[in-house]
Design goal:
By secondary structure, this protein is mainly α. The chain has a single domain, classed as Glycosyltransferase (Alpha/alpha barrel), CATH 1.50.10. Helix content is 45%, strand content 8%. It is built from 13 helices and eight strands. The longest helix is centred in the middle third of the chain and has 18 residues. The two termini are 30 Å apart. The N terminus is likely disordered. Keywords: Hydrolase, Signal.
Length: 406
């Protein structure tokens, strides 16, 4: 059967140091390129990476983007490709990263559509791909970009208790998501360039989340905390948002296991972070479904409208597997991770005749406040768009598969 999936064909033009793209949409019938068949004999991590490249020859095309941009979601996928390159040494994956980086970092190290004064913690995340890219290429543009992102953290607004605001437009708020966006980059930078001087400050971010978002009844973490307690979604007693969102907890757990990669073994805060990981892992394990997966609203189970969500499940699998592999978590979490990954394959992955794979049931996006207003209710989380092959579900799938050597 002929498939008519549309492809992007682009002409690159160099203007003021940035590559800009003029794109047109052509169907498969209008091209003569040979069909790409992805072997079922490959590991799941490579099958997903090759499927991504097949659909989106340029990384910026992921999520049906019409033009390139500096973006935390693309940074997540690039992080997974970097880890895949480390595991396989296949230049195909390194080149995919480099090709994207060259479209968002100009020859002087300027970052496309980035404004430091926005103080958006999400904007730090894509910077993770620049460390190894700089090491491989010795291109100073990447070092300049790294320094720019580090400079943001120096002046980024904080709560009175020292936690990074999620964004300037969300004053006094810490979101679980922000721990993944900021702290692994911060940890790697301070380890690589600053002699590890800021690990106490990095640990403080986790301490604040534990102090202010932990629910003593379930052991889970609420999605966000408003120090001012002024937001409509915030509890007037605690400042927390009202529900548990699996992906937000997944972001937090991934942040913990990734920061520990860079924190020295003798650092006074290391045991504290490992304890946090054990506590949240125990709580999350209590809500693993019989399928091995987790629900969109973590503690709500089969309540009407709730569904088994891909990205949160993948993040939990990754954190469980990496935590067990590194010795942070007991070995039983490796079994839970394998159960989770098997559930992802059985319930959420579809495979085309040519071997291309797709991840289904990915929550497209969720947040709090803003316009239109997001109230953090149960109904809000279950009504957000559900997509196939959304970037939130692509990167964590590769990371989880790599940790489990699937």
């Amino acid at each position: 059967m002929m498939h008519y999936r549309k492809k992007n064909y682009c002409i690159a033009v160099l203007i003021t140091g940035f590559l800009l793209f003029s794109c047109s949409r052509l169907t498969a019938q209008q091209t003569s390129s040979p069909a790409v068949v992805i072997s079922k004999d490959l590991k799941w991590s490579e099958r997903m990476a090759l499927s991504i490249r097949k659909r989106d020859p340029k990384a910026w095309q992921i999520d049906n983007n019409e033009k390139t941009k500096w973006d935390y979601k693309l940074g997540l996928v690039m992080t997974s490709f970097e880890k895949l390159y480390e595991a396989t040494h296949n230049p195909l994956y390194a080149n995919y990263i480099k090709d994207y980086a060259e479209t968002v970092i100009n020859s002087s190290g300027g970052i496309l559509n980035y404004k430091l004064e926005d103080y958006n913690i999400d904007n730090i995340n894509a910077g993770k791909m620049l460390f190894d890219l700089y090491a491989r290429t010795k291109d100073d543009r990447y070092l300049t970009a790294l320094k720019t992102l580090r400079k943001q953290l120096e002046t980024h607004p904080r709560t009175n208790s020292g936690g990074f605001w999620h964004k300037k437009i969300y004053p006094n708020q810490m979101w679980l998501d922000g721990l993944y966006m900021g702290t692994p980059f911060y940890a790697r930078y301070t380890a690589a360039f600053e002699g590890g001087k800021d690990f106490d400050d990095i640990a403080k971010q986790f301490e604040q989340i534990q102090l202010h978002t932990l629910d003593p009844k379930t052991g889970l973490l609420f999605h966000a905390w408003d120090e001012s307690k002024q937001m409509d979604w915030a509890s007037k007693q605690t400042g927390t948002s009202p529900n548990f969102w699996s992906r937000s907890i997944g972001w937090y757990m991934m942040a913990l296991v990734d920061v520990l990669d860079y924190m020295p073994k003798d650092h006074s805060k290391r045991k504290e972070l490992i304890q946090y990981l054990n506590e949240i892992a125990k709580a999350v394990a209590n809500y693993q479904d019989e399928t091995g997966l987790w629900y969109q609203v973590t503690d709500a189970g089969k309540k009407e409208g709730n569904y088994l969500e891909a990205s949160g499940s993948e993040m939990f699998v990754y954190a469980f597997a990496k935590g067990a592999n590194k010795g942070y978590l007991p070995a039983r979490y490796k079994k839970l991770a394998n159960k989770g990954f098997d559930g992802i394959i059985k319930k959420l992955i579809t495979v085309d005749a040519d071997g291309e794979i797709h991840i289904t049931q990915v929550c497209a996006s969720a947040g709090l406040g803003g316009n239109p207003y997001r109230d953090g209710s149960y109904e809000y989380y279950i009504r957000e768009k559900i997509k196939t092959d959304n970037s939130h579900g692509l990167g964590p799938f590769i990371l989880a598969a790599l940790e489990l050597k699937k």
